[in-house]
Design brief:
Blueprint: H1 8-30, H2 37-48, H3 78-97, H4 104-111, H5 115-118, H6 128-131, E1 134-135, E2 140-141, E3 147-150, E4 153-157, H7 162-165, H8 193-242, H9 249-255, H10 264-269, H11 275-307, H12 312-319, H13 321-337, H14 361-367, H15 370-400, H16 405-417, H17 422-437, H18 439-460, H19 469-493, H20 502-525, H21 533-546, E5 553-554, E6 558-559, H22 568-574, H23 579-585, H24 599-606, H25 633-636, H26 638-645
Antiparallel strand pairs: 1-2, 3-4, 5-6
Helix pairs in contact: 3-8, 3-11, 3-13, 8-9, 8-13, 8-15, 8-20, 11-12, 11-16, 11-17, 11-19, 15-16, 15-19, 15-20, 15-21, 16-19, 17-18, 17-19, 18-19, 18-21
Membrane topology: Multi-pass membrane protein
InterPro entries: MFS, MFS_trans_sf, NO3_transporter
Subcellular location: Membrane
Length: 654
């Protein structure tokens, strides 16, 4: 991952650019072509003279990922700025997105929605949530002498035995049928209204973002990653801050419905040999915010505020303002310090070989590919599972295992903290297998990660509260490892699925993760009135999609059990955005004057009929009456042009 300060590829590219400049300029001048000074200076300074801090390929994408090489201007080091900008925005998005999850019981208490607030034990002693309750730390049940059941459902506590009730030496505590003192401050167990509010808010938080993430495909192509990321952070800051004003359950549900970023940015900046690692590391360390928030919101913010004398109701509200401030700071930094692509401040769809303007029809075209649909649901089975766990685990450990708040959040945080390396490990595994086995290595990495995720999720669903908490933690860590590895292996495949629709594919797959959390919430955890069975059913869902991995097959890449049907040379020559494809089909548009982007226009140039437009962009006209400068046949001879630009056409950005 760590390379030389300026790799040989970067130096070679710079020399090639200089040579091309010296050879192209005389032809331009001799033919009478008029270049606007401003356009020429901007193009020359921003592209030709750039020397990157990272080694790059012919498309100016980094071929290495040196995490600590952050020096240099934005023109010299756009790759690592994009990497860290993406990582920090991911991290803060998750921190703010799940900030209310560890504070759920405090918020429920503030709203007066705990079971023992809505139904005081004095007047409602037979509530099912009370009858089932047992204080694990003291082993004392609410029903001191057992339960009375009807078809397996508790209906009341057993009466006090007569020998104790009539015993004059028995204490008043021993003569109690119900023991409300053993109940937690906020009873919010499965089946209660409180638990339903928290579950609904969690589903709303991930469900609403499905539409946002789908829309991101078009938004990214129109406005670029920098504008989209900074805009979403600013918008999210408003809603995170508004969380401090929650008074009613509907507000809690609505305000948790925010957003999360995407992986399109890193795919623009990093070469295929490291794109899996770059995507996985940026997203993994971003997802780390989902684990950090479990600890940060309680141990760093809430508990110290309460210890200083602040009321709990006020402390959690003040705590919510901190992530909002961090959102605004990060948004400003991304906007001011980062570029969309290695050579341009703003993204243009032509960079990914797309000739049409973004439209909603792009989504229809992409969804016609069954492989994309399988990837969407496989991502729902890994990233969707992580989102579901971020919503469930803290409450599960706090209510089912009845651990103290700080301990419960620490255990739940361990799941998210695995993102520190686990998702990166998935991306690295995908890249390594790709290097030695070919594309089928990426597919096998995906299958194995999902397969073992399902195994350990099922195992976690078998750990009941009669066993020590560390047994659950051990299984949880193994489960978390494979969940996040599967996320990394997924985005090791995504950049190769449909390169011209990369933004749309990335958006749809990302939305699949949120869809998975909604499916888990509504189909597994909400309707099943049991603390463990939902985890087991969820494991079956993951295994089902893992077994559909053989659907991945491309004639140029191969599949799980088959190699590619075409040679590697033909594949490279046909891929949009590669140097070989540019040499064959896209030489002319890389000249720093706007002649258009189609091969037909290039052919007309060769015939001496094209025109040079001095306007900014790619607007052009083939009408001689609209010509502003005629390119002579002498300049446009194919031999002259080919000898000048062959081998370095992609070094001349549009």
């Amino acid at each position: 991952m760590f390379g030389s300060r300026k790799g040989p590829a970067a130096k070679s590219l710079s020399d090639k650019r200089s040579q091309c400049l010296q050879r192209v300029l005389p032809f331009l001048v001799a033919s009478g072509c008029r270049l606007r000074q401003r356009t020429w200076q901007s193009w020359h300074l921003h592209h030709w003279m750039a020397e990157f801090k990272l080694a790059v390929d012919e498309n100016n994408k980094a071929t290495e990922l040196p995490l600590l090489r952050i020096c240099g201007t934005v023109r010299e080091n756009p790759h690592m700025r994009a990497f860290w900008g993406s990582t920090f925005s991911f991290f803060l998005a998750f921190l703010g997105w799940f900030a209310l999850a560890p504070l759920g019981l405090e918020v429920a208490t503030s709203m007066g929605r705990c079971e023992n607030q809505l139904y005081p034990t004095e007047s409602n002693p037979k509530r099912v949530a009370y009858l089932k309750y047992k204080n694990i730390s003291t082993s004392e049940p609410y029903c001191q002498y057992g339960q009375l059941k009807d078809d397996g459902t508790p209906t009341d506590c057993a009466d006090v035995p007569s020998e104790i009730a009539n015993n004059a030496t028995a204490t008043a505590e021993e003569k109690l049928k119900y023991r409300p003192k053993v109940l937690a401050k906020c009873v919010c167990t499965t089946g209660t209204q409180c638990n339903g509010i928290i579950a609904n808010a969690g589903v709303a938080a991930v469900g609403s973002t499905i539409f946002v993430r789908i829309a991101l495909g078009t938004l990214l192509e129109r406005f670029g990653p920098v504008n989209v990321q900074s805009g979403l952070l600013t918008f999210g800051a408003i809603w995170v801050a508004l969380a401090a004003t929650i008074q009613e359950p509907w507000q809690y549900t609505a305000i948790r419905a925010t957003f999360v970023g995407n992986q399109f940015w890193c795919s623009l900046m990093f070469s295929p040999n490291v794109v899996g690692t770059a995507n996985a590391t940026a997203a993994g360390w971003g997802n780390l915010g989902g684990g950090v928030t479990q600890i940060f919101m309680i141990s760093v913010l809430f508990n110290p505020l309460v210890s200083s004398g602040m009321a709990s109701d006020t402390a959690w509200r003040v705590s919510m303002l901190i992530p909002a401030v961090l959102f605004v700071v990060c948004a400003a930094a991304i906007k001011l310090l980062c570029w969309d692509t290695p050579t341009a401040k703003r993204f243009n769809v032509a960079l990914i070989g797309k000739t049409k303007k973004p439209s909603m029809w792009d989504y229809v075209e992409v969804l016609k590919d069954v492989r994309v649909v399988v990837m969407i649901f496989q991502y729902s089975a890994c990233f969707g599972t992580e989102l579901a766990m971020n919503n469930q685990l803290a409450t599960h450990f706090r209510t089912y295992f009845q651990l103290p708040a700080t301990d419960a959040f620490a255990l739940a945080g361990a799941f998210g903290l695995m993102n520190l390396f686990a998702r990166s490990l998935g991306g690295i595994t995908s890249d390594v297998l790709f290097k030695y086995v070919g594309f089928r290595g990426r597919i096998w990495a995906q299958f194995l990660a999902l397969f073992f995720e399902a195994i350990f999720l099922f195992g976690f669903g078998l750990v009941d509260n009669s066993q020590p908490w560390y047994v659950a933690l051990a299984v949880l860590v193994c489960f978390s490892l494979f969940v996040q590895m599967a996320e990394g292996t997924s985005y090791g495949i995504v950049p190769f699925m449909n390169q011209q629709q990369l933004a749309v594919v990335s958006a749809l797959v990302g939305a699949g993760g949120n869809l998975g959390a909604v499916i888990a919430g509504f189909c597994f955890y909400r309707p099943i009135n049991d603390p463990l069975i939902p985890f087991q059913v969820h494991a079956g869902y993951v295994m089902f999609w893992a077994l559909l991995t053989p659907f991945y097959y491309w004639k140029e890449h191969g599949g799980m059990f088959h190699g590619p049907a075409v040679t590697e040379e033909k594949v490279v020559a046909s891929e949009p955005g590669t140097a070989e494809a540019a040499d064959a089909n896209d030489i002319w548009p890389n000249i720093p004057v706007a002649l258009g982007n189609d091969r037909e226009n290039y052919d007309s140039v060769i015939a001496g009929e094209a025109v040079l437009s001095s306007t900014k962009g790619s607007h052009h006209s083939k009408s001689p009456g609209q010509a502003r400068s005629i390119v002579s046949n002498a300049f446009c001879g194919p031999l002259h042009l080919f000898s000048c630009l062959h081998g370095c056409s992609r070094s001349l950005p549009v």
